[in-house]
Amino acid sequence: MAISEMKEIIDLRSDTVTVPDEGMLNAMMNAKVGDDVYGEDPTVNLLEHKVAQYFGKEAALFTPTGTMANQICLKINTNPSDEIICEQDAHIFYYETAAPALISNIQIRTIPSVSGMPELDLIEKAIRPDIYYLPKTSLICLENTHNRHGGTILSLEYLKNVRSLADKYNIRTHLDGARVWNALVESNYNGIEIGKYFDTLSVCMSKGMGTPLGSLVVGSKDDIKKALKVRKILGGGMRQAGYMAAACIYALDNNIDRLKDDHNNVKYLAEILERNNHISIDEERIQTNMLLIELDSKIDAEEFVEKCKNEGLLLFHIGDNKIRIVFHLNINREKTLKAGQIIENVIKKIL
To answer: Phi, psi (5° rounding) for residue 156?
Structure first.
């Protein structure tokens, strides 16, 4: 059955599937625009200023996508033949099509972790000695919240310790903050507190924040000057981008606090599914807008996802027998309950 033929669809594959509400559309249509390649789009300039201030940095740069923002940051923080360190399931390693090798001519050294926070001693052991026949370790990358660990939050104490380690070895730090907004809403720290531990950050507006597109690179003025050139090389220079920037400003003003609703819906669905003997849930990973469930070995994950789709529920098979469920602003409590009922009914039918 084609998705378009369904009467009602509950899409929990990702928080990227949202559509603008009336308020966001009005903001977009009333935006003042100019040519951003010339630096003359007032709405883009305002967005960049607001986001830079939010994280206590000097400047920011608007990009079309989160992957581009991450790759720009890797490029400006490294030199060809360098090595960077990241967690083994990090987005920049797992989902960005080997772009670091292609764009920056660098390699990645990955470290395993339980919840997206590699142990400090493992990070330190991964830092290369200063020997001519070894690559230079030039960057440590973290991801907050961590996608493949189910939206887990990196603690402020951990970020502080990683920064101290990086300073000890004169290594720069980068944060893939695609869902940093979720971390900020759920944690006890703010944007400035998290920003001071990183040289560069990438923050995404098209996930939980609900915009049609857009991410930003955040850092020093010198870093953003370099980033501007790399964005041009990658084809990311946009013209009257203020229409999209207006959506991002609207999201900053209206959609940060409401992320808590998504987190509460995750907990509600988890409570429903925890009673099912054919589903395993790691409660410690229930932190933000994602829920990872592991299906009974008797259930084929691909078949499960397909049968849920036929019932009007879209889910994402993340690997093994695990399903990732992501909440967003288009999902209310009623749809959350319906999703739980569909999951339980499909399991009954399969078994």
So the answer is: -65, -35
> What's the pLDDT band for 1 if we cut at 50, 70, 90?
very low
DSSP 8-state code for residue 37: G
The model's pLDDT over 230-271, given as tens digits with 9 standing for 90+, comes to: 999 999 999 999 999 999 999 999 999 999 999 999 999 999
Task: Determine whether domain 3-18+258-350 maps to CATH 3.40.50.970.
Answer: no
- CA 172/CA 214 separation, integer angstroms: 25
Closest CA to 109 of 127, 140, 84: 84
pLDDT digits (tens, 9 = 90+) for 21-54: 999 999 999 999 999 999 999 999 999 999 999 9
According to the CATH classification, is domain 31-254 in 3.40.640.10? yes
